[in-house]
Amino acid sequence: MKRNDCLDTAKDLITGQRATDYGSAYENHARIASLWSRYMSGKLNLQVQLTPMDVAHMMILLKVARLMHTGTDDCYVDIAGYAAIAAEMNEEYAR
User: Fold this and answer.
1) How far is CA 33 from CA 22, 56, 65, 73, 86, in A?
2) CA–CA dist 31, 19 (Å, integer)
3) pLDDT tens-digit profile of 17-54?
4) Is 55 helix (H, G, I), strand (E, B) or coil?
5) Cα–Cα nearest to 64, from 82, 87, 50, 84
6) How far is 44 from 8, CA to CA, in rounded Å?
7) Rg, the chain, Cα only
8) Which of 7, 8, 12, 33 could make an SS bond with 50 (beta carbons 3.0 to 4.6 A apart)?
9) Helix (H, G, I), strand (E, B) or coil at 66
10) If you ran DSSP here, which 8-state letter would residue 45 be given?
C-alpha cells in the first residue's frame, strides 16, 4: 500500500461512516476511557484514571501487537487513524 493510500483510507474512515456511527472521536474515547478505568481499577484494586488520549495510544499499541504476528494494511491504516485522532485531541484538549 502506498503511503498516500494509507493516509487517505484512514482519513476516510475517521471522518466518514465511523464518525457518523460512533459520534465525536473525543467523546467515544472518553466513554472507553471511563469503562477501561473502572475495569482496571477493579482488577488492580487501585484507582486508575485513563484519558481519551490514553485510549488512542493503547489502540495504537493493540495494532502494533497484531502487526507483530502478521502485517496487514488494515493495521497500518488504523494506526494512522488513531494517530490522527490523538494529534487532534492533543491540540484541542491539551493535557
Assistant:
1) 15, 10, 20, 26, 13
2) 15
3) 888 899 999 999 999 999 999 999 999 999 999 999 99
4) helix
5) 82
6) 40
7) 14
8) 33
9) helix
10) T
Q: Angle formed by the axes of helices 3-15 and 73-92, to 10°? A: 60
Task: Provide CB contacts within 8 A for 5, sequence distance 6+.
Answer: none
Total count of domains within the chain: 1
What's the one-letter identity of residue 26? Y
**Can you tell me the distance from the alpha carbon of 1 to that of 16, in angstroms, rounded to the nearest whole number?**
21
The span from the CA of 29 to the CA of 53, in Å, is 8
- Which cell numbers hold the place of 32? 472507553
Domain extent for 55 = 3-92
For residue 1, what is its C-alpha cell?
A: 500500500
